[in-house]
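[job 0412] stage=fold_complex status=start
inputs:
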Amino acid sequence: MTSGVVSARLTDEQYQRNFSDVHLPLTAHEASIEADRCYFCYEAPCISACPTEIDIPLFIRQIATGTAEAAAKTIFESNILGGICARVCPTETLCEEACVREEAEGQPVEIGRLQRYATDTLMNIDEHPFERSADTGRSIAVIGAGPAGIACAHRLAMKGNRVKIFECLPKGGGLNEYGIAAYKTVDSFAARELQWIMGIGGIEIETGCEPIDSEQLDHLRQSFDAVFLAVGLRGVNALDIGGDDIENVGNAVDFIAGLRQAEALSEIPVGRQVVVIGGGMTAIDAAVQSRLLGAQDVTIAYRRSQSEMSASRHEQDWATSKGVRLLTQVRPVRIIGRDKVQEVELEYTKTNAQGHIVGTGENFRIGADLVLRAIGQKIVQISDVLTTKDGKISVKGAGRTNLAGVWAGGDCAAGGQDLTVTAVAEGRDAAEDIHQVLNN
Amino acid sequence: MVSLRSDFLGISSPNPFWLASAPPTDKEYNVRRAFEAGWGGVVWKTLGLDPHIVNVNGPRYGAVWGPDRRLMGLNNIELITDRPLDVNLEEIKDIKRDFPDNAVVVSLMVPCEEQCWQDILTRVEDTGADGVELNFGCPHGMSERGMGAAVGQVPDYIKMVTAWVKSSTHLPVIVKLTPNITDIRYPARAAKAGGADAVSLINTISSITGVDLDNFSPEPSIDGKGTHGGYCGPAVKPIALNMVAEIARDEQMSNLPISGIGGVTTWRDAAEFISLGCGNVQVCTAAMTYGFRIIEELNAGLAQWMREKGFTSIADFQGRAVRNVTDWQFLNLNFVTKAEIDQDLCIKCGRCYAVCEDTSHQAIAMKPNRVFEVIDEECVACNLCINVCPVDGCITMRQLAPGEKDLRTGETINADYRNWTQHPNNVAASSSE
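[job 0412] stage=fold_complex status=done
writing structure:
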C-alpha cells in the first residue's frame, strides 16, 4: 500500500459501500414490529432522558396505529431537527438507555430508528407541518446556522417573529453539514432538512458573513429586537507539544468537514498510518472515516482510560469493529518528521492521587503519516462585555446572557452536553423566552 | 406412565385433540395430513344435501390481531362443504379404513325434515365413521335457510331434530351448540332431552371484525359489502369456558359429556377445558394459524403437565374445576388480598400506577426513582395492576392471614367463610343471624 497521504486508495464501489447509510431505515413492517414493543410507560423515562423531551411513547403509539405522519408531528413539536437527531443522537446513552425494556431484557425499543421512520415519512411528503402565527412585527438576529440557531429561528418564526440568520460558512447547517460522519447523514440530508425547516417562512439566511465581533454585536443589538448567539466552537485546541507546522498534522474537524464537502470521496487524501489524538466523537468520526477511506492502520490515542472517553461505548465498539485501534492511557509528547510527519512519540500515563494525568516516563513511537488532533474545540471570543464560564458564554435560565436582549445556546453556551439534541433544546427554549420577553 | 388416550362416547382416539368441523377437515387430503401429524381425531366438515352449496369467491375470513400481528380472533363467512356429498362420503370411508385408530366423526346439517336426516345418516353409517355431530351452530348463510343456528337458537327444534337422529342411527350423536343465545343451558338441556349423547361447544360467535375505512365496508368485504361471520380463535376462549362450565355444573344435565371448542391454542387451554368437564377438545383456529404441527406441542405439553401433577389419564383431572365454579353470591367475602410489587422484577414502566391512578383506586404510590409501591390502605385487590404489568410474576396477590388487619377497612381478617347471602348489607339476606 502506498505510504504517505494520498487520495483514491479505494475503488468507487468500495467508497460507495463504506459511506452508505450506517443504519438502514426501518421498513414499514419492521417499524410496526418495533413499535409494538413500546409499553407506553407512565411519565416514561425515555422522555426525561431526551434533552428535547420528545413524547416518545405517544409517537411510537402513533406509528403502531398507522399514523407515522402524526408521529412525526409529535416529534417535531418538541424537536424540529428530529430528523438529524434520529441519525446522530447517541440514543444508547439517552432515550434507549432509559427504556424499561433495557432493564427488562437488555434490548431497548429502537427509539432512534422509529424516530427516523416517522420523520422520514413526513419529510418525504415535502410539506411543512406547522403554520406560522400572525406577524408580531418583531425581528431577531440569530448568529450561526447550526442546530441551536436553526431550532431557535424556527420556533421564533413559527410564533410570528421575523428572523435573520447570519452564518460565516458558505452553507447553513453547522455541524450537521460540516461535522458528523458522512455515513450518518447521507444524501445531503442536513441541507435538505434545513430547506424543509425554512418552509415555515419568515426566516432569512445570510451565509459567508464575517465572524461576529464586539462591534457587530453592538450593531445587531441596535437593529434587531433580540440577538441569539449560536456560534458554536470554531477554535480548535492545540497540542502544546510543537510540531503543529509539520505537514500532515491537522485538525480532525477540518478533515471531517473536507470529507463532508467533497465532490467525490476519492479526492480526499488519507494516510496509510493515521493517528488521531483525543477521545470524543470527533476522534471516533475522524478515525473511522480514515479507515473507510482506505487507511491501513488507524490508532486513536487517548490519555485517560477507555471508560473515561467521552465517546460512548457504542461508538467505541463501532470504531473497533471498523478496525480502529484504541490506545488508552497514552499521551503524545512529540511529533516527529522533517517536513512531513513520520512518527508520533507517546508516553504512558497514569492518574495520580489528585486525579491528574501524569506521564510514567516510559515512551514509545508509532508510525504516522497523518496526525489528526481531536482534543476539543473552543469558542472564539466575541466580546469582552459578554461574561464567560469555563471558556463559554455564561447563561441563566433559557439562555439569557449578561447583556440585555442577547441570548446564547448550543455548544458556545456554558452548561449542557455538546450534542446536537442539546443544542436544539437550548435554541428552542431560548426562542420561547425571547418571544415571551418581546411580546409581553 | 401418562396416557393421553381419549375415550369419548366410546370413540377412542390416541389423544384428546380433535380437529373441529371446519376448513381443516374439508377434504381427505387435509385429514390425511392431520392424522399423519398426530391429531387424535377429526370432525369432518359439515355435510349437507346435494346440490351442494356454493361459497363466496371473495375473502371468507376476517381477523383481529394483537401486537406483532398475532392472530387473536378469526371470523369466517364460509358455509358447509361445497363439494358433492358422494365425494365426501367416499373420502371419509377411505380415511376411516386407513386410520382405524383415529376418531372420525361426521358433522351434518340438512333441512328440518325427518326424511332428510334419515337419508343422510344411512349413508354416513356406510362410511364406517365413528359418530355424528349435528351442526346447530353455524351463524351465517345456513341459518337464513332454516338450518345451523336457526335450529340451535330454538330449544324445541334442537330436541325434535336430535330425537329424529337418535331414532335413525346407532352412532353416537353429538349436538354442537351455538353461543349466539342468552343462556346456553336451555339449548343444552334440549339436546339432552332429545337424547343427545353429548354436546360440543362453542360454535362461532356472530361478528364483524372491522370496517374498511376507505370504502366503509364491513370486513371481510365482498364487493364493498359485508355480513356477520362466525368469530373464533383465542379471543373467544373465555366465552367458551364459561358456557362449558355452565353446562358442566347444571344439575339437570347430569354429567352429559362435553366436547370443548373455542380458542384452544395451547396444551394449557386444553387442560382448562377438560378440567371444566370436557371429555376432549376440538381445535380449529390454532391449526389454521400455525398448521398441523402444533399437535406436537399440544400432546407433549399436556403430557408434561399431567406428569408433574401425577395424573396418568385424562379422566384423572377431567371436571376437577367444575366444583369450584359457583355463583357470585357464594364467593367468600372474608378472603382479602393485597397486591404486592416485587421491586427486583419491576422494570419501572409505571403502567400499574397509570391505570390504578386513572381508572381504579389510587392504591399505588410513585416514589422517587420510579419506585412503585402498593398503598394497602387503598388497595381493593382488583387485580388490574397485575393484568397490565408486562412482567409475569412481578406483581402478585398476597392473601391476608386471619387475625391480620385490612388497612383499607380497618377490619381484622376473619378465618370464617362469609358470603353475600350472609352479609348485613344484603336486604334479601335471611335475618336469622
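[job 0412] summary: Chain B touches chain A at residues 67-69, 347-351, 353-354, 366, 370, 390-391 (CB under 8 Å).
[job 0412] exit 0
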